[in-house]
């Protein structure tokens, strides 16, 4: 008999107990952004430490300037990999409270259709339900075999929903203790109800604010309209030049470090059935605005962008004012992929802007963050093992997906711990995270536990 | 002996008396925008009516929903023209009061240099001092000859500094009574201290607000950046397309009705010595942004423009937000010249925008006023007579100038009374109208009276 079968059986038998434990955690109002709930956050960390200790972890609440971290260690067999599991025990605020069908901190199991149950409550999907899938998998391994198949370090954060102010310093100060072969991050979704997903790429981000100044004061457009440079016109011209007619970014050097996605990966994305129609339809659009000749999936997961996130200048109120403004501002961001260098992109953009400025106008730039893209190799052995383990558990084989956004902790693990992350999660797009009536599928919770048990098993082979 | 000489002598002799009368009017705090001064506004109208009656005008205070108008009539000889004189007796607020060197409503004569005196006080230049130059000219004509050389109607407004809400309805309701051969408007400046000016053109204006909508809600730029249309990008592209690389407006049909300024007029403007350096230098610029190959004077007085007066979209606050906005807005205005048709310009712009819009995006337009340009013929006999009269009075010959802005009353006279206006004023650019320490040159007041006496005389010949 394999080592995994009795663990899976144990998880099936103990599902009700695991639910009761999750409910205990969900009852704690660990809203990290509101100082009124600081004590509840601390209770959440303490509850997790006690639970991990009961499994045999060497667990402790670790103080930060904000809400505490939970760190726990458990040995594994020699030769097996050492993994760092990450999740967060803090949750989003619950207002507007009157839109909740039941109390957000009174979790319950609710049958929404025959043989279809969901766990309701704030944090059920984001991220308490998800992190507990891993804890339950460890508990079952210990119960059945008296040991864990890998050496495991656990890091639970209490500030993910409020900008993670303590994370970087904590990683830096405790790098030796937290370093592992790779990280497992459980804070993402499945592709769909039947298809598990491993996220292998996250786009990077460069944020930049640009302020164009022309005259030394606001001008009357009657007295000066014509001869006087108009910063809105200059800025519009610059922004219009950023893309060509095929949706490509024209900034010289912008595509340095961008790689073509392997054709077999593109083909596997095509099988997911995501089209311009079903991706753009729900947001009221139909025509992809990105680079011509590429699918919407590739645009979001594997292509860089230049986006204008804000623009402002002159008179913006009701009515009209015949003013020529002294300055105009735009907030511009670039999503990066592969090996694009945030510093080089920022410098290239600034040069691009400066080269388009009339000699008597000036520009000021204000940086707003920069982080490179995360790209796991599609053929990493860890990815292959996790993919096969997930494919055994779920109705459909696991897919490798990308994410158009960034998950800062993944970059931080890379920067401070020199460690890649494997992103596996069991949320669904309709879980209403951050919104009223958050839920987590009972199948996500149950099969999520089984998935982690299988992944831990697979990683040792 | 000519009819004019004794009138001019009389004005010289009576200068002190005319100053005392002006001071009486300047002491009235007729701030039209502040309801607390409504009674003072009424006193201003009543003072003017009494003064005009003392000269022999049939004058009355005329109620409006806001501050009253003053209307006065005086007969003239058969065959002489009938002119409508316009000025306004209301003034701007006076704050910040602590920046005034003397009480704004305690007018005084101040010697600022040897043989250089100015009249200080709110309204001294804008517009009480100016309108009284005309009243004093009439008084002198009556005193010397017992009659006026023309039939004269006077209209003094009390709401010019607060948007003239009652003007249009009043003109419409009293069109028969107010209609004359042409209007004399005294609310403008001289070209410089020695050179009187007749303004013969005013640019028209079309204001338009354009709102581009893409997705049906704000989007996360990580999840949707690439495929999703960005309304700021669409708007920037549209605005950038409005001008070509030579500063010309590219909207089809935009230049319909624009005429080339006669070369002798352009030459006379060149003699004024206005250059890109001295026009743009004070506002911190050096390079004319308008149509290549034209002087800044021509750009402002005789060429149409497209200006972007405001722009807004997405996140404009501090910091950064990775949002793709659902909509973006721009306020666009067009300054019109000659025979450009505001309605056609508006329609052409809308078509221009619609033609550049992705099929799944939408646009809404909000009109913000439209008025055609005012263009007096450079060789009108009235203009020639006024020019020659002014040239006799001042050290340098009068120049025909244009104005880049609009003076609404001139358009309203055209629309409601079917009447052209002759714009002659004696203000100087440094009179600090609308600001603390407003002043009017004693020479403007004195030679302004003499100028009107000469113009009235010239118009009869």
What assembly state would you assign to the polypeptide chains in this entry?
Answer: homodimer
Q: What overall geometry of chain A do the principal axes of the alpha carbons give? A: elongated
Average pLDDT reading of chain A: 95
The CATH level-2 architecture of the largest domain in chain A is identified as: 3-Layer(aba) Sandwich
Q: Name the CATH homologous superfamily of the largest domain in chain A.
A: Zn peptidases
Helix/sheet category of chain A: alpha+beta
Examine the coordinates and then state which fold CATH places here, giving the name of the CATH topology of the largest domain in chain A.
Aminopeptidase
- Give the biggest sheet of chain A: 9 strands, mixed
What is the count of structural domains of chain A? 2
The radius of gyration over CA of chain A amounts to 25 Å
Protein name (chains A, B): M20/M25/M40 family metallo-hydrolase
InterPro entries (chains A, B): Cyt/Met_Dipeptidase, Peptidase_M20, Peptidase_M20_dimer
Pfam families (chains A, B): M20_dimer (PF07687), Peptidase_M20 (PF01546)
Organism (chains A, B): Aquamicrobium soli
């Amino acid at each position: 008999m394999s080592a995994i079968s009795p663990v899976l059986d144990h998880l099936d038998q103990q599902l009700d107990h695991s639910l009761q434990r999750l409910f205990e955690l969900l009852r704690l109002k660990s809203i990290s952004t509101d100082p009124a709930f600081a004590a509840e956050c601390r209770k959440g960390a303490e509850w997790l430490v006690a639970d991990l200790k009961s499994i045999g972890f060497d667990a402790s609440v670790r103080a930060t300037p904000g809400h505490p971290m939970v760190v726990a260690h458990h040995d594994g067999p020699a030769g097996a990999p050492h993994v760092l599991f990450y999740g967060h025990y803090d949750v989003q605020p619950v207002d507007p409270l009157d839109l909740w069908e039941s109390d957000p901190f009174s979790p319950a199991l609710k049958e929404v259709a025959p043989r279809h149950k969901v766990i309701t409550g704030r944090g059920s999907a984001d991220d308490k339900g998800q992190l507990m899938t891993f804890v339950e998998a460890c508990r079952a391994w210990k119960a059945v075999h008296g040991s864990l198949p890998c050496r495991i370090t656990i890091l639970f954060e209490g500030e993910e929903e409020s900008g993670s102010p303590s994370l970087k310093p904590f990683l830096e100060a405790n790098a030796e203790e937290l370093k592992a072969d790779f990280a497992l991050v459980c804070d993402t979704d499945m592709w769909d109800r039947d298809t598990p997903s491993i996220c292998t790429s996250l786009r990077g981000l460069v944020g930049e604010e640009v302020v164009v100044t022309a005259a030394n004061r606001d001008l009357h457009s009657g007295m000066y309209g014509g001869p006087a440079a108009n910063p809105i016109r200059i800025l519009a011209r610059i922004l219009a030049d950023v893309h060509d007619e095929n949706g490509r970014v024209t900034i010289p050097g912008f595509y340095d470090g961008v790689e073509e996605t392997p054709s077999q990966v593109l083909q596997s994305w095509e099988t997911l059935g995501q089209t311009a129609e079903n991706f753009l339809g729900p947001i009221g659009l139909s025509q992809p605005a990105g680079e011509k000749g590429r699918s919407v999936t590739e645009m979001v997961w594997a292509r860089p962008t230049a986006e204008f996130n804000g623009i402002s200048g002159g008179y913006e109120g009701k009515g009209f004012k015949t003013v020529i403004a002294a300055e105009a501002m735009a907030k511009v961001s670039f999503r990066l992929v592969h090996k694009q260098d945030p510093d080089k992109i920022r410098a290239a953009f600034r040069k691009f802007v400066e080269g388009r400025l009339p000699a008597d106008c000036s520009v000021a730039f204000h940086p707003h963050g920069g982080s490179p893209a995360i790209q796991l190799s599609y053929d990493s052995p860890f990815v292959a093992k996790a993919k096969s383990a997930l494919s055994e558990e779920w109705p459909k084989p696991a897919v490798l997906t990308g994410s158009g956004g960034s998950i800062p902790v993944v970059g931080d693990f890379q920067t401070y711990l020199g460690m890649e992350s494997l992103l596996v999660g069991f949320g669904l797009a309709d879980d209403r995270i951050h919104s009223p009536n958050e839920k987590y599928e009972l199948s996500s919770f149950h099969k999520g536990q089984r998935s982690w048990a299988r992944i831990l098993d697979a990683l040792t082979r």
